[in-house]
Write a structure and sequence with these properties.
413 residues; 11-stranded mixed beta sheet; alpha/beta; globular; binds NADP nicotinamide-adenine-dinucleotide phosphate
Length: 413
């Protein structure tokens, strides 16, 4: 692959796909988008910690070869556009990439740079693990009971961006079609949005969630939907999810219904329970029966709300990690924005990006290095030397800079 303005480093090798699996060399080239605003500070800290952990765990046998690519303000400067072809080509070529937050330019034809990247690269699963880190102030009594991984569908639902403004030519045309052809009356002063949910979109997302549950020996996959009201979209999501589990994973899974109707609640050895919850009930369940939930698969809008609500429950909204994953390509990224008022002040928490890098290491199969970072973060929080956002909520804590926090995490590896 030839790039226009970037050159892949010569001392690394690309990750490849062999037999539907990633083949990761000991020196993989990982493209990295630093990001705008606080991206510069948190990416510097993240790279230092990841490099130190990989060195410590593998003693020089493995190494990440970072490859700087450009999006957002830095791309505007280098290429005269915010999302150059080089960047998308590099992610496609090298398969796994790390990304800081990006400013969404006002005007200029982009709804959001992030959304555009997800759509162009068809990154259909937004994966958000939520667990508790000891020492983090949390609003509930037993935050340690939370350990869920949410798989949110990323390309469909009311988030697909198919909508028309009240009174526009398009909105009037849709209203007239609905009135004349479908005999449905909608107030003429309405804006219109469309909610597509397909078998394809649902089943490839649910497949990812079940595969994850199997690979990580999780106990259950919960389908979260609002199918009691939206029968042909959310209800269909639930039905198609069960159908997939039955068709492709009959040996590895059992439905909750069968578990209680035929097995007296006894889970057969090694089987994963497939269950479903209506979205509003799920928000109660996750608060009061937290430990019963494990892997979650859900349409786009539910997933957006649920992932932030879960993260808030463990006090970790500011350090929640995330990834957007397609069939193979994985873009691992901070879930917060560019917080421009803190840009280049070396003060924000790199936790969200760093934990996304931990997810990335797990995706590469470098689980030991990821674990080492998680443990070191927890130790650093327990020692109460933390960035301002945690310090202001913790009694007796010492406030440190982003770079010092990274240094402390490295010392705790
Ligand atoms: P934001 O950048 O997430 O910042 C909102 C607030 O969250 C900050 O003022 C700060 O709160 C806290 N915060 C965020 N990151 C933090 C960190 N690493 N450490 C500590 N505190 C942190 O949201 P925004 O101000 O609404 O958005 C700014 C820009 O980011 C926009 O252009 C938006 O489009 C973009 N954005 C990008 C992404 C992405 O790239 N994935 C996601 C969301 C938004 P306090 O001031 O209370 O300390």
């Amino acid at each position: 692959m030839k790039f226009k303005k970037i050159e892949p480093p010569g001392d690394g090798k690309p990750i490849t796909i062999v037999g539907k699996k990633l083949k990761v060399p000991s020196n993989p080239i990982i493209p990295v988008i630093e990001g705008d605003g606080i991206g510069r500070d948190i990416m510097r800290a993240t790279r230092r910690v990841v490099d130190a952990a990989v060195e410590k765990i593998y003693g020089g046998e493995k190494r990440i070869v970072w490859f700087d690519i450009y999006a957002g303000e830095a791309a505007q400067e280098k290429y005269g556009e915010v999302l150059p072809k080089d960047t998308l080509d590099a992610i496609r070529t090298f398969i796994v990439a790390l990304k800081g937050p990006l400013t969404t330019p006002v005007g200029g034809g982009f709804r959001s740079l992030n959304v555009t990247m997800r759509q162009v690269l068809d990154l259909y699963a937004c994966v958000r693990p939520v667990r508790y880190f000891q020492g983090v102030p949390a609003p509930v009594k037993s935050p340690e009971k939370m350990n869920v991984v949410i798989f949110r569908e990323n390309t469909e639902d009311v988030y697909a961006g198919i909508e028309w403004k009240k009174g526009s030519k398009e909105a009037r045309a849709v209203l007239s079609f609905l009135k004349n052809e479908m005999k449905v009356k909608i107030r003429p002063d309405s804006g219109i949005g469309i909610k597509p949910i397909s078998v394809t979109g649902t089943q490839r997302l649910v497949r990812k969630a079940i595969d994850y549950a199997i690979a990580n020996k999780r106990r259950s996959v919960t389908i979260v939907h609002k199918g009691n009201i939206m029968k042909y979209t959310e209800g269909a999501f639930r039905d198609w999810a069960y159908e997939l589990a039955q068709k492709e994973y009959a040996k590895q899974t059992i439905t909750e219904e069968e578990l209680f109707s035929k097995r007296n609640g006894q889970v057969p050895e090694g089987k994963i329970i497939i269950k479903d919850r209506i979205a509003d009930s799920m928000f109660q369940q996750i608060l009061i029966r937290t430990a019963e939930y494990d892997v979650v698969a859900t349409p786009n809008l539910n997933g957006d709300y649920l992932s932030d609500a879960c993260a808030a429950q463990v006090g970790g909204l500011g350090m929640a990690p995330g990834a957007n994953i397609g069939d193979f390509v994985g873009l691992f990224e901070a879930t917060h924005g560019t917080a421009p008022k803190y840009a280049d002040k070396d003060m924000v928490n790199p936790g969200s990006l760093l934990l996304s890098a931990v997810m990335m290491l797990e995706y590469l199969g470098w689980t030991e290095a990821g674990c080492a970072i998680e443990n070191a973060i927890e130790k650093t929080i327990i020692q109460k030397t933390v960035t301002y956002d945690l310090e202001r909520q913790m009694e007796g804590a010492t406030k440190v800079s982003t770079s010092q926090y990274a240094t402390n995490i490295i010392a705790n590896l």
